[in-house]
Amino acid sequence: MNDLTTKDVNEMHNSLRPNARRAKTAITLIWVILILDIFSFISAYLQYGLLYAPEISEEAAEANDLRQQIIGGVYLVCFVISAVTFIKWFRRAYYNLSQVDSYVSYSSNDVAISWFLPIINLFKPYQITKELYQKTKQLLTENSIESSVKLSTSTVIAWWTLWVINSILGQIALRLARNTNTVDDLLLSTWLDMASSLIGIPLALLAIKVIRDYATVEPLLYEIQSEDLKIESAMT
């Protein structure tokens, strides 16, 4: 068997792109979202209690509205940034898999676009993540490569289930908040906000696990590609 040439090694590293920093950034931003979910829950809980008060002063109402607006605004900005960093990591992870396994089901563009298409974004990202986990696990098994982390699709299922539930609750709460005509409407909207924030905590922890587990395994793809290059080199 021929040894890998310098050119082969360079080609290998050019095809598999670094993704560790993207994973770290995505995880950091999700921790920020988790903390904001806690603050959002506390703020919504305070609003819920205020709505049940016999009397609400104008100052208390204004302070409550200002607090809710600030937390909501900060959350929205951080959520958008977090979503961008996650999708960048996600797209790169799938791209790297496609460099080792040419029989993947989607292109890198499909991976990114799937998050933005109505209806499709309720199931397609899950299917892509599941394939990412399953194919990587299969590649490691076929190449007899051991990993300290076992990729489990159960984690992906739990993460995505909470994501869909939270997304639906968030949409309902948002629409109610825009069309509140009575105190009961506002109470229901606030209750949904609290529920969404609570679900957001385990959701964030599961998202972190999904990224961290795969980021631990992903560097092993270099070993697989290295072996493939050795085989190709031996055959030429």
TrEMBL record:
<keyword id="KW-1133">Transmembrane helix</keyword>
<protein>
    <submittedName>
        <fullName>DUF4328 domain-containing protein</fullName>
    </submittedName>
</protein>
<feature type="transmembrane region" description="Helical">
    <location>
        <begin position="186"/>
        <end position="208"/>
    </location>
</feature>
<feature type="transmembrane region" description="Helical">
    <location>
        <begin position="156"/>
        <end position="174"/>
    </location>
</feature>
<dbReference type="Pfam" id="PF14219">
    <property type="entry name" value="DUF4328"/>
</dbReference>
<feature type="transmembrane region" description="Helical">
    <location>
        <begin position="70"/>
        <end position="90"/>
    </location>
</feature>
<feature type="transmembrane region" description="Helical">
    <location>
        <begin position="26"/>
        <end position="50"/>
    </location>
</feature>
<keyword id="KW-0472">Membrane</keyword>
<dbReference type="InterPro" id="IPR025565">
    <property type="entry name" value="DUF4328"/>
</dbReference>
<keyword id="KW-0812">Transmembrane</keyword>
<feature type="domain" description="DUF4328">
    <location>
        <begin position="55"/>
        <end position="215"/>
    </location>
</feature>
